[in-house]
Amino acid sequence: MSDIAALRALWEKEGQGHVFTFWDTLSPAEQTAFAAQLASIDPARVNAIFQTAIAADAAPSDEVISAPPPDVVGSTVAHPEKAAEWSALGLDAVRQGHVGVLLMAGGQGTRLGSSAPKGCYDIGLPSHKSLFQLQAERIKRLEVIAGAKSAVPWYIMTSGPTRKPTEDFFAENSYFGLEKANVIFFEQGVLPCLTNEGKIFLDSPSSIAVAPDGNGGIYAGLRAPLSPSSPTSVLTDLAARGVKYLHAYCVDNCLVRVADPIFLGYCIQRDADCGAKVVKKTVPTESVGVVALKGGKFGVVEYSEIPSHLAQATDANGDLEFRAANIANHFYSLEFLEGVQAFEHAMAFHIARKKIPHVDLSSGQVVKPDKPNGMKLEAFVFDVFPHTKNMAILEVARATDFSPLKNAPGTGSDDAGTSRADLLAEQRRWLEAAGAKVEAEVELSPLVSYAGEGLEAVKGLVFTKAGIVNSVTDFQKLV
């Protein structure tokens, strides 16, 4: 049997043989490209994901929702005295080369008025540093303060449209001072778009309609070969480097403490296989998901899923019981990530009903529907939470750790202006805590201070001039 015949037989066996409807009309070049796409998709997996998603979508939502048990929740807000202990453990892991960083950077800045990858965005700092540069420099500074014996590898998950512009941006900026070999790019996966009956759409006679599989596609992406010519994947690269722990986060948070030693140390001390950094939800109506138990298993419960009486419930301290706001900031042990494939079949993808342009199989004409006619399937990065054996949750202050960039400039909420203000306000607090008086706008390079350390030289100084501090010798220029 030829390779094409075997491929066709596989797709027909899984009830998706219609994708070959126009095969005989294609040119040899089109057939070659289409065969490559078909070979990259497992139709049995697609069918299994569809069945699990449909079952989950139809299941009654009667699972009991409860707040996380106190014994899995730590807090740098309630117990700031613990931070130094946890930080020491995290820094030691960095020092030993046991820490890697995973950045979810597949999004474009469309809502921000930019067609570039979101990490390229300039939030308007005096330095005009991009989000990518801020995060790269935090990694460099962390390696210095930890006395790292080897570099912290940075794994950057892009999407198909953002892969090349992201790689080009890093190359044009000399990887922001990091070694190229320690910055590893890979793509999140895609899944075919489906009819409501689970049949795969064609978007042309020679290609399947696909869509990104959500940030939860990161787990399959970690297993995929980094290039067609190499069997190396992110998971095998992590193991080869001796990395034991991974910190994962989203690109659009200008305050993110990349490979945060406090968070790492907290999770390591608890021997956690999975961890979530959260901020305190302060009002019941805030539209944010919270880490909680659903049917006795950890997960993220959307605000719309929590009954009003539970959303408003408070504990003995007057805090909301459901307050662990999810900020997509996670810890994983490598062992946990290597085991995801074993339970991935039980993770229900989420259905998004969409208007999906497609080729009509009878006429060969492109149809552009005016109402939803099918579905895209997405997984969320937190969909692994129900499968953790030892979950850890760390509450941190919103002002120090979380300022998302979601909206267009001038919106006044979660936009470039609020991101800029929040970052400069945090750095001002660092300077004032170190004994300085700040009367002008001062921006600190992450290469000078990761989280407020290394600022002994500012004690007693009064900053009267605005400016950028790229090294400790710059402080005197601003007094």
Please give the alpha-carbon distance between the first and last residues: 79 Å
Strand order of the largest sheet: 2-22-14-17-13-3-4-5
Shape: globular
Q: How large, in whole angstroms, is the Cα Rg?
A: 24 Å
Strand content: 15-25%
Uncertain spans: none
* Percent helix range: 25-40%
Q: Major sheet: size, sense and barrel closure?
A: 8 strands, mixed
How many DSSP E strands?
Answer: 26
Write structural notes for this entry:
It is built from 14 helices and 26 strands. With 479 residues, it is α/β, with parallel strands linked by helices. An eight-stranded mixed β-sheet has the order 2-22-14-17-13-3-4-5. A three-stranded antiparallel β-sheet has the order 1-15-16, with no helix packed on it. It has a three-stranded antiparallel β-sheet with strand order 7-21-18, with helices on one face. The radius of gyration is 24 Å and the shape is globular.
State the main characteristics.
26 strands, 3-stranded antiparallel β-sheet, 479 residues, 8-stranded mixed β-sheet
Write a short abstract of this structure.
The protein is an alpha/beta fold and 479 residues long.
What is the fold's blueprint, element by element?
Layout: H1 3-13, H2 28-39, H3 43-58, E1 65-66, E2 73-75, H4 83-95, E3 99-104, H5 131-146, E4 154-158, H6 160-172, E5 183-187, E6 190-192, E7 194-195, E8 202-204, E9 207-208, E10 210-212, H7 218-223, E11 225-227, E12 230-233, H8 234-241, E13 245-250, H9 261-269, E14 274-280, E15 290-294, E16 297-301, H10 308-311, E17 324-333, H11 334-338, H12 340-343, E18 350-354, E19 358-359, E20 366-367, E21 374-378, E22 391-396, H13 398-401, H14 416-433, E23 437-438, E24 442-444, E25 462-463, E26 467-469
Parallel strand pairs: 2-22, 3-4, 3-13, 4-5, 14-22, 23-25, 24-26
Antiparallel strand pairs: 1-15, 6-10, 7-21, 8-9, 11-12, 13-17, 14-17, 15-16, 18-21, 19-20
Helix pairs in contact: 4-5, 4-9
